[in-house]
Every structure is written in C-alpha cells, then in structure tokens.
Design a protein that fits this description.
The protein has 359 residues and is mainly alpha-helical. The chain has twelve helices and eight strands. The strands form four sheets. Strands 1-2 form a two-stranded antiparallel sheet. It is flat, with a radius of gyration of 38 Å. The protein starts with 9 loop residues before the first helix and ends with a strand. 11% of the residues are buried.
Length: 359
C-alpha cells in the first residue's frame, strides 16, 4: 500500500549514519573556529577591566573631586559656560595659524608666550642688502625708561617663514601690517630695532586693549568666585557623604546615635560623634573638619549637630527607606504588625512599630 512505511535497508542506515556524523563534525569545527576568532579579538584582561570599572567606590569619586586643583576647575567652568568647538592649536608657529573666532577663544584661554631661548638664531640668516644678517637676540628684550629690562611678550618668531609676528595684532587687528599678516611677516633684520617700535602703534595698542577686555570675561573675578563656590560645594558634599555613611552604619545595626553630650573628645558623646572621630583618625578631610568646626556651639555651620543628623535621617527615610518598606509589604502575601509602647526615663512614651513580612 502507498500509505505503508517502507523499512530502510541496513546499507541505507549505515550511509545515513555516516552522513549525520560528518555533518556533526563540520558543525563542531565551525563553532570552534568562531570561538577562537572571538577570543583572539578580546584583550586578555577585558573581563577584569569591566569588573573594576563597575566597582567604583563613591568615596574614591568624592576624593578625586576634592583633589581638583584651580586650573582644572577653571577649564571645567569654561567648558560648561560656553558650548563651543574650540580647536587645539596646530602649532606654535604663528604663520601656520588659521585665525577665526574659535581660534581666538582658544588663545584667550591659552596665551602663547614668546620664548627666544628655543630659537636657533643660526638658522635665521637672511640677505639684507649686500650682507647676510641674522635675527638679533636682543630684539625680544625692551629697556624701559627706568632702566628695567622687560620681555616683548607680543613678539613671536615663525620658523616656517623665518619672520616675526605680533601676537595681539594677528588676533584682533583690522589693519594688515608686516607684523599682523600671516602671508609674509616682518623679515627685514637690518631695520628690526627700528620697526619694533610697532609696539607704540595705535593699532597695536587697540589690539592689546581688546585682548585684556576679552581676558577679563574668562579670567575675571566672577570666574574666581565661581571656582571658590565649586570648591566649597565639593567640600561640604564630601562631608555630608561621610555623615550619611555613618548614619547608614549605625541604623543598620540598630545602635543608638546620641550620648550624654555632643562634645567632641568626650567618651560620652554617643556612637554618632564617636564614629566620626574614628573616621577622622584615618581621613585627613574629616580630621581637618573636626578641628576647624568641632565644638563651635550654636550659630556655626558644622553639620555635626543632632539637628542635621535628624534631618538627614528624615530625608533618607522619605526618599528610600519608607518606599522600600511599603513595596515589601505590598508585594508580600502575608505580613504581621506588632505595636509596643513603653515610657523612657524622661517619662516620654516611646512607640515601637514592627512589621514582619513573608516573602
């Protein structure tokens, strides 16, 4: 019958078994090749690096913030205040600068300083008239009327053009002069002491005025005040971080916070202040804080009083603890409630609420 199942012969069974084994071997070999190639593309300790990056301690982050110096804070403030794509200076050679608004902003934050010590004056030889002359070293110095010697900070040398340029006029001058044109620059070494009187030019003085007015915007007193505020904010944030960790430690173990007094150095000031004193023995930040703000009394901000401690506990309770308790109760199938009350030594009634959930 057509619907009957035909039985395979022994030779057919062997043939199909061999084909099946062959396919399995090909599949296994392809899998191994894929695994080997994927392993070879990974770096040897990539898993450890990922693990280490995920195990960032908040204490380390806070300490890194506290170690931030003024220059770093200035750069952070400048970046956050102005969203501009400021290019990196391509070269110290002024003839190669592509002067635009972004480049001007860069130089205002990172002014170029004239440094004649790095110039190889033997390579500055030019034919001036009948004689070969080289750039004199003294051109970068200026003698004042009182006899004092000052550097000409505005004077820059270009190795590519073998020419001199004026830093301020390159950035801000509307009139093209020998010192402000990147096409040529000043190259007449014979008259360099005569032409260097460019510093008395009205165009040069106007460029300097614009420079200092722009510098005040980015390095003025407002920025300095903002840096101080940033440092103060980081300081107090670090102190609060240590206070919160101490509160979590004591409350998680059900330990009392207060003692007979709130005097630092006393044996009866309670677990809270005692833990802060213990931290101060190994933490310079907390040690300095206790020395400067400890035992100052009312009216002085120290964040060490029981009032601040109670406020921190209340905020932590509202933000996370209470929500977690409510979520556990709502997700639990069964829970029990125990209420107990007893007066303390001051005759105040202390109410205790105990929730027991079965998850």
């Amino acid at each position: 019958m057509s619907g009957k199942r035909t039985k395979l012969s022994g030779a057919e069974y062997c043939k199909r078994a061999e084909e099946k084994k062959k396919k399995e071997k090909e599949t296994i070999s392809q899998t191994l090749n894929i695994q080997i190639s994927s392993k070879s593309t990974l770096k040897p300790d990539s898993d450890e690096l990922i693990e280490n990056s995920l195990k960032l301690d908040s204490d380390e982050l806070v300490e890194n913030l506290m170690k931030t110096d003024d220059e770093t804070l200035k750069s952070d403030i400048n970046v956050s205040c102005e969203i501009t794509n400021v290019p990196i200076c391509p070269s110290q050679d002024p003839a190669l600068w592509d002067i635009n608004s972004d480049m001007v902003d860069y130089f205002i934050r990172n002014p170029v300083e004239s440094n004649p010590k790095i110039i190889n004056f033997d390579n500055t030889i030019r034919k001036c008239g009948e004689f070969n002359r080289k750039l004199p070293y003294d051109i970068f110095k200026r003698k004042l009327l009182n006899g004092e010697i000052k550097d000409r900070e505005w004077l820059l040398y270009s190795t590519s053009k073998n020419a001199l340029f004026c830093f301020y006029c390159l950035l801000f001058s509307n009139k093209k002069t020998q010192f402000s044109s990147t096409d040529s620059g000043f190259t007449d070494w014979k008259k360099c002491f005569e032409k260097v009187e460019h510093e008395k030019n009205l165009t040069h003085n106007e460029s300097i005025r614009i420079w200092f007015s722009r510098r005040k915007i980015t390095t003025g007193i407002d920025v300095e005040l903002k840096i101080e505020l940033e440092k103060k904010e980081l300081y107090w944030r670090s102190i609060i971080h240590r206070l919160i960790e101490t509160i979590i430690f004591l409350s998680g173990r059900g330990l009392a916070f207060r003692g007979d007094n709130e005097t630092l150095g006393s044996k009866n000031n309670g677990n809270y202040l005692g833990c802060l004193e213990l931290i101060a023995k190994f933490d310079p930040l907390m040690s300095n804080h206790l020395d400067e703000y400890g035992n100052k009394g009312r009216g002085n901000v120290s964040y060490l009083s029981h009032t601040i401690c109670d406020k921190l506990i209340t905020l932590m309770n509202k933000s996370s603890v209470l929500h977690k308790i409510v979520n556990e109760i709502t997700s639990a199938k069964y829970f029990s409630l125990i209420v107990d009350s007893t007066p303390d030594i001051t005759k105040f009634d202390q109410l205790r609420l105990l929730l027991d959930t079965l998850i």
